Amino acid sequence: MAQYKAPLRDMQFVLHDMLNIENHYASIPAFADTNRELVDSVLEAGAQFCENELSPINRSGDEEGCQFDDGVVTTPKGFKEAYKKYVELGFGSLSAPVEHGGQGLPPSLGTVMSEMMGTANWSWGMYPGLSHGAINTVEAHGDAQQKEVYLTKLISGEWTGTMCLTESHAGSDLGLIRTKAEPNADGSYKISGTKIFISAGEHDMADNIVHIVLARLPDAPKGTKGISLFIVPKFMPTGERNGVKCGSIEHKMGIKASATCVINFDEATGFLIGAPNKGLNCMFTFMNVARIGTAVQGVAAAEGSFQGALEYARDRTAMRSLTGPKNPDKEADVIIVHPAVRQLLLTQKAFAEGGRALVYLLSTYTDIVATTQDAEAKKAADDMMSFLTPIAKAFLTEVGYEAANHGVQVFGGHGFIREWGMEQIVRDTRIALLYEGTTQIQALDLLGRKVLQTQGGMLRNFTKVVHKFCQTHEGNADMAQFVAPLAALNKEWGDVTMRIGMKAMGNADEAGAAAVDYMMYSGYVTLAYLWAWMAQVAQAKLAVGEGDAEFYKAKIQTAQFYFKKILPRTKGHIEMIDGGAETLMQMTADAFAF
Fold first, then answer.
1. Are residues 297 and 395 in the same domain?
2. If DSSP codes are grouped into helix, strand and coil, which group holds residue 233?
3. Cα(63)–Cα(61) distance, rounded to whole angstroms?
4. Tens of pLDDT along 509-554?
5. CA-CA distance, 540 to 267, in Å (whole number)?
6. Which of 49, 139, 518, 553 is 20 to 30 A from 83, alpha carbon to alpha carbon?
7. Are 312 and 412 in a shared domain?
8. Nearest residue to 408 via CA among 395, 396, 425, 433
9. What is the SS3 assignment for 195?
10. Residue 594: Cβ within 10 Å count
11. Contact at 8 Å (CB) between 193 and 311?
12. What is the pLDDT of residues 259-293, one digit of tens each?
């Protein structure tokens, strides 16, 4: 099984060469001291931790899984020790506020750290990963006492956090939840109900677990307008056990070392966060962070599978090259010489590196939203983040899963065998297409709420950026291969959106029928913009003779592959969008059984 190696060179390319992250941080007063040296030192320390502590326990954690015994969950061997080292090294507090014990570094650096942890060992990364969302929620909506009691412990890593949203009958329709919150005389609440699919809901890695719980007050209106948000700790700050217990853990397809729990609240003491009946608004702070984190899983799946497949393809021999022997001293050539294998590897590489650029770009907007006092700048960044988040979450997990399957394919029959680790990546990443809103729900959010409900405003915010890029480089002969198709697709994006909107005015199902294909189309065009941008940066570096020429040539060649071999998929999605809703909706429900 291949051990994870952090792709530091590519991370530095995106952060420094492409995003000019040092200047970005300098433009934000809160992060002005975050220079390149500091960024690179965080990357190097994170790489050492992930390569040496997390990667070695990835497969063993999958084999052992979590153990459940009457409400007690035991994590696999080495998980507690790795978490202790994670806390000692201060990784959990990187992006947390200084006033509550954090280091005050930009959220975008936390995203980079999340990618490394996720690729090295996604199951392990789920435990501290859920804490980040809890930290952001308490920081944004908690009162002074809640921040003092809970935020400091979450930031230090002494306690971990969860988000408890859904229930067995509700799924993603949170308006159906039934968990109750009865007020107590002292201002606290009695929380009663059962939540399912709670990642890191019970474990032995930290002293306490702070649950962020959606529940209904007695006089709450029906639906999503009647949901409130509560802090419900496993142990009260005074030390006594709260009425919170893990009822069971799920037996899952993947991420087996991450405890996915049923959590029972039996008149547990909880504390209201934010205003009554505004819990879903507050929870979006948590959910947006979690969705970006899930987008990172798509990148992690593509990167991890690519690393394993590339190492195997460079070593495994089978058949001869179609253009003549490349290793005449051996009985066969290494399989990386075969076009079919290269198609798989380059697809993985294109999605891993393009996805990395997308989540890192997205995280720069998070930096601005988290700190700026400029209302106009904050709204612009928030709108861009709102538009790109469903694309990143849904598209990157879909293509990350595709890349993971390509890894198995490169190995052939060996990919189906557990000891190589490739099938684990497929199993582990399959959940990313489901949690934090399925691909289909994210697609509806993108097309319905972010595009059609804003009369295309959020879409235009982004297509203007792409248009400006194309205009800037339209006179560059080397960029013509990228700019011409990108400009055409950017215009088509607006045109197809208009067509969907017009049809949906007469039949709302038209939007539902088009949503997933629209989301995939949007993802391919977004990555095309990023690959064109990366190619332009690489060309500029080569022109001045700066840096590793082979690295920059490979960037341009991967961009060419993306535009020639992957981007044409957009044509199929346009055809399916224009196919409309009729063929989906004309059959009666009973007729499906015939």
1. yes
2. strand
3. 5
4. 999 999 999 999 999 999 999 999 999 999 999 999 999 999 999 9
5. 63
6. 139
7. yes
8. 425
9. strand
10. 6
11. no
12. 999 999 999 999 999 999 998 887 776 677 778 88
Of 568, 530, 557, nearest to 359 by C-alpha is 530
Residues 410 and 462 in one domain: no
Helix (H) or strand (E) holding 275: none
* SS3 of residue 250 by DSSP: coil
CA 593 from centroid of its chain's CA atoms:
37
- Identify whether the C-beta of residue 546 lies closer than 8 Å to the C-beta of residue 483: no
Nearest to 301 by CA among 166, 400, 371: 400
User: Do 286 and 427 fall into the same domain?
Assistant: yes
Query: Facing residues of 273 across strands?
Result: 229
* Same structural domain, 430 and 550: no
Q: Is 550 a catalytic residue?
A: no
* Boundaries of domain holding 425: 282-442
Instruction: Give dist(CA 243, CA 87) in Å, integer.
Output: 28
Give the pLDDT confidence score for residue 283 in this predicted structure: 74
In angstroms, the CA 208 to CA 157 distance is 10
Phi/psi for 48 (5° steps) reads -60, -45
Q: How do beta strands 208-215 and 228-233 pair? A: antiparallel
Which pLDDT value is given to residue 285? 64
Task: Supply 138's token pair.
Answer: 């308490």
pTM of the model: 0.96
- Do 317 and 334 meet the contact criterion of CB atoms below 8 Å apart? yes
Q: Which amino acid is residue 171, in one-letter code? A: G
* Spatial distance between the Cα atoms of 264 and 468, rounded to a whole number of angstroms: 53
Query: Please, which pLDDT band fits residue 176 given cuts at 50, 70 and 90?
Result: confident
Q: Which pLDDT score, from 0 to 100, does residue 286 have?
A: 61
In this structure, what token pair is assigned to residue 153? 């412990």
User: What local confidence, expressed as pLDDT, does residue 247 receive?
Assistant: 98
100-122: b or e for each residue (b if 16 or more CB lie within 10 Å)? bbbbbbbbbbbbbbbbbbbbbbb
Tokens of 314: 């460079």
Per-residue CA distances from 22 to 35, 39, 535 (Å): 5, 8, 21
Last residue of a domain, one of 409, 442, 475: 442
CB 417 within 8 A of CB 314: no
Give the torsion sign (CA, 212, 213, 216, 218). negative
Same domain, residue pair 407 and 459: no
The three-point CA angle 481-487-488 to 5° equals 95
pLDDT for 170? 78
Query: Confidence class of residue 436 from pLDDT cuts 50, 70 and 90?
Result: confident
Residue type at 384? M
pLDDT-derived band at 196 (thresholds 50, 70, 90) equals very high
Query: Is residue 5 in a domain?
Result: no
Catalytic residue (choose from 353, 398, 436, 510): 436
CB distance 279 to 228 below 8 Å: yes
Written as one string, the DSSP assignment of 471-499 is HHHTT-GGGHHHHHHHHHHHHHHHHHHHH
| 469 in the same domain as 418 | no
Are 270 and 443 within 8 A, CB to CB?
A: no
